[in-house]
Each structure stands twice: as C-alpha cells, then as structure tokens.
Design a protein that fits this description.
The protein has 222 residues and is an alpha/beta fold. Helices cover 16% and strands 29% of the residues.
C-alpha cells in the first residue's frame, strides 16, 4: 500500500521551530576557543583549519565525558538525542540553594513522563544579571529524581548550573551518566519557548568522542 505523501508533513501554521543553539563566533574565549584560519583544499577551494575542543558551543555530553571506558556519542542510538521534552523553568532563583527533588516535583510533577528530556533554565532576570553565584543548580537529590522519572537527557542554558560547586557538579554527573543519561550544555533562547512540553532534537556530530557539537532545536505548538 503506498504511503500517504503527507505523512511526514508538518503544518507550520500549527507548530513553530525554535533554534536553541548557542552561536559560536571565532575566536571564542580563552576557556572555549574556536580559532579558525582559512586555507585551501587541493582544488583551490576554501577550507578552515580549526583549533577548538568538544565542549565549545551547544554540545551533547556522553558518559565517556565522565567515565573511563564510558559510552561515546557513537555508542548511543540516535533516538537518544531526540524526543518529548519538558521545560524546567525556575522563576525565583536562590543563591546557594540547589534545586531539590521536591522542587523538581513541584515544577514538573504534573507533566513529566518516562523517557522525557528535561531542559533547565533560569527565568529570574535579576539573578541572571547577578552572575553565576546567584544561578539555580541541580542537587544530587534532583539528579536521583530525574532517574526515577526515566529522564534520558538533561539540558541547561548558560544561566543554570549542574551543581552548586565543582564537587556537586561531579556528583550530579556521576549519578546521571552512570545510567547513560546524557547532557546538553550551552543551550540558548530557552526563554523563547512558550509551551511547557515540546519536541526536542540535539543531534551530535557523528564522532567517537566523549562529546559532540550539536544543533539544538525545539518544535512546539503555536
């Protein structure tokens, strides 16, 4: 039986595409450089030699980022990096108080489903302007709550942290990545999302590495 030619069509009058990727502008920064030098291929067309690393711009982190012998980007099925997603939106950030399991439940308990992707953002403009000491973060208890809900990816923008300090950030990584939960970092424009539930994709560069650059997008109902 022939397929309906419109079976894969998206009615863009009902849905909108939101680019959630962070723009990388050479030369980048000292910590996250993206230095390019233009040169030529054999046919005299242009190419760019690039000096950078795998955690520049929007990127997916696989378990190999944290564990020796952990799964790389290539070891995970492609569907890992796409699916139903929910927005964890903190509107009143408190410095030095990581988000607890109870806090996550209050924000997401009515909408989250097994297999979801959770994108975390700080919507408190005052704390965004105040700097990283005032940004919200995840606690180890919140990471365990993510596991209990079956979360497959945790994503953050540049105003939300995965832990209050280095030790807690490593513990959150340990808890989630030990169960093959990936992270997407350096997301942008999460404040442009208008719906609490949407479809998300961050397809990483196909490379055998701990992490891969990605173009992250959301498809949400208008």
């Amino acid at each position: 039986m022939p397929e309906d030619p419109d079976v894969f069509a998206i009615d863009w009058t009902r849905y909108r595409l939101v680019d959630l990727s962070y723009a990388v502008i050479p030369p980048g920064t000292q910590e996250r450089p993206f230095v390019t030098e233009r040169s030529f291929l054999a046919d005299n067309s242009f190419k760019h030699d690039v000096q950078t690393h795998t955690h520049v711009g929007t990127h997916v982190e696989a378990p190999a980022h944290f564990f020796e012998g952990g799964k790389t980007v290539l070891d995970l099925p492609l569907e890992t990096f796409m699916g139903r997603s929910v927005l964890l939106k903190v509107t009143a950030a408190a410095a030095h108080i990581p988000l607890t399991a109870e806090g996550c439940r209050a924000l997401l308990g009515d909408v989250i489903q097994p297999g979801d992707i959770v994108l975390c953002t700080n919507a408190d403009q005052a704390s965004r302007a105040a700097g990283s000491d005032a940004w919200p973060s995840l606690s180890p208890a919140a990471a365990h709550w993510f596991l209990e809900q079956g979360v497959k990816i945790a994503g953050i923008d540049n105003y939300f942290r995965l832990g209050l300090d280095v030790a807690m950030t490593r513990e959150v990584h340990d808890i989630l990545m030990s169960r093959d939960v990936c992270f997407v970092e350096f997301l942008d424009h999460l404040d442009e999302l208008k719906q609490p539930v949407f479809y998300f994709m961050a397809l990483p560069f196909k490379v055998s590495s701990d992490s891969g650059w990605a173009r992250a997008v959301a498809i949400e109902a208008r």
